[in-house]
Amino acid sequence: MSAHVSVRNLRIVAGSKAIVDGVSFEIARGKVLALIGESGSGKTTIALALMGHSRFGATISGEVLLGETRVDQLDEAGLQALRGRRVAYVAQSAASAFNPSRTIMSQVTEPLLVHRLASKADAEVRAVDLFRALALPFPESIGARYPHQLSGGQLQRLMAAMALITRPELVILDEPTTALDVTTQVEVLKAFKAAIASVGATAIYVSHDLAVVAQMADQILVLNQGRTKEQGAAEQILHAPTDDYTRTLMAAASPTERSAPAVVAGDALLKVEGVHAAYGRLPVLHDISLQLARGATLGVIGESGSGKSTLARVIAGLLPRSAGSVRLGGEELPKGIDGRSREQFRRVQLVFQNADTALNPVHTVGQTLARPLAFYHGLKGAEAKAEVARLLDMIRLPADLATRNVRQLSGGQKQRVNLARALAARPDVLLCDEVTSALDTVVGAAILELIDELRRELGIATVFISHDISTVRAFCDQVLVLYGGTAVEQADAAAFARGVHHPYTDLLMHSVPEMRAGWLEQAVTRKAVLPSEVGDDLCRFLPRCPVAIDGRCNAEAAPLRAGDGFALLCHHELQTLRELTA
Amino acid sequence: MNHVFSFARSLPLSGRIGLGLVLFWLAVALVGPLLAPHPVGAFVDQDVFSPVTASFPLGSDYLGRDVLSRLMWGARYTVFLGAGAAMLACLIGTSLALTAAVRGGWVDEVLSRAMDTLISIPSKIFALVMVAAFGSSLGLLLTITAITYVPGNFRIARALAVNVVSLDFVTVAQARGERGLHIALREVLPNMIHPLLADFGLRFVFIVLLLSGLSFLGLGVQPPHADLGSLVRENMSGLVDGAPAIVVPAIAIATLTVGANLLIDSLKPVEKQG
Questions:
Q1: pLDDT-derived band of residue A102, with 50, 70 and 90 as boundaries?
Q2: Keyword Transport on this protein (chain A) (predicted)?
């Protein structure tokens, strides 16, 4: 069988720089090719070239064949007939790809109507079939809704519906699950795989996540800086990679255990007790308590909306708590930022997730780092300059970067500067809010290593907020699992590894894709056993819990069950939980 | 001086043209009266609306005065009164906007509603009342025109500032314990300076128009002095003859305002640098 899609010697040049250089591959009909690489490796650029699209100012050369069609030689009209009909595209962020002022149905059926392939009524019937195939709730009526009324995972599936509705020959999926929670990702991946198979389309899956790719791809192409590093069958790349770069990627994807666990000495430095917080009338945190010793690391895990970022904001005083206390070294911190002394500000530093917005774009690296030095320590002139150089050295950036504007840095460099600004204050507690989630795996792993090293050297207590359970497991001394603003489980690293878990933690752990083919098929999407109930005191996880007990979970608040080094909120006995989650 | 040259070299062609025009008019405004061939109110021509001649390089106006001299005297009113009022308006408007955006809450509410009230007063009527009450003077004209354009600048600056304040680096500064003044001036203001300059350019044009409107009503710059706007207005009857007396001041206003806007537009916004 001849290849369905074949790309020969693809070269995409912008200005004098080749973004993609000499990439060739073939995909047989109905197979899935994954393009893997870090940001800037040209994977999206290649994917877009298959639709004959290049970003402004870039030129495509080489051969792009879809069936018998030379995509690279099509004119504007030819491309219009191709796009959305024979080739479809699913973008990374469905939330921003939908038009907020039109209904879902009108947007999903649009490709059919634009290409005059079906009448409106037929199109809607087809759309509903697809909604059903993609396991969307209320397939009959979901089309009448607007994008803001749906969740991220649902929008991502609807975006796939929009792409698949014309039964295209080729579907391009560009990081379609990167922005989703792990639990949602499993469902979306399953839906994608089934839907693509049912349409019989060939697919290109662009991703940086090897474990996800392992579930989806038949072949893998590893890219670095626009060049092919390695290409072959998925099995071979995942289990017997021959290229060094592929091995680096694989190593970064599975975080290694930390070399030296924390020497937890003395009393708790940071003590949070019974903290409640709300945005206006909407409660977000419910009775959170934690303790953190000097030099220790606490991992806070949860899905988006679980209140993990809010916890950091409450500790930093950005959101005043409505009840409870936050103590730092025995001293109670005022609720909000009003009334905190400069010394109290200095001791708690917050590092934000997105360094692009956390650094002021008009300042240079030097100005950014010098401000906390001047503000907290009164350092000026040559002294400050020397300290900035020392900080840059600590985060392993060259000293001459100090005069550069922060805009001119790469994502990883920005995140380092972001971290260094917090360290410049010489804090006692560092609150890291998803500091690696916007970075490539390799860069993220380096940042983690850096934080860990600094923590050990400087004895900083770290609160590490993440949605990535495997990172937290490898990196932290204590783990706090948040669900709906409640701490459903709290454990030290050893107890967490031994493995009695709250059903929610268990769900999270089982949703992290493993790097082997066939995991997705085995992964069971656990369904709730009880209809959803709303009650202030009831277990928050009840509407999703696969092991809820009728008459108890939906009747009374969950008791706290404590064991050796851990505590969790559940109606099940620990012994039962051990069996259930084994 | 070297600094000015290197600055000029860094500008694109349009920016250099703008810079040249602005510098030219600044020079005219500063030294014009010293170089003017005739006093501002002197009747020197037998004829009115005479064309370009050797003795009157830009012709004469509706009373037989030398247009070149009147232009050289009048430029300073437009340049200094216009630019001064625009600067004053932007300074007040932006300061209040930064206060509103950084403080938020009731401060924002009070300031915004106060500005809404001010914006609802028709500017010409307001100017008429003020001039009628206090009599026309340069100081009053400056105050009136500045006050008239404060709310517009406030609205734009506040919208810009509110966007910037919602960004993480401002939150970081708050969590660092920074005072409002530092946040406003060091974190927020540099990120909105370019649109503000563009706004300044627009306000400058509006103010030139408002001043000439007031002069037309006899409430602005008092005769025999005239700003560029009133030069156009007073020679309006020369339009049918195509007299230079009306064309030249119009061109003067155009070159001044277009020059100022060309210059401002060519100052690179921060995000495009590097």
A1: very high
A2: yes
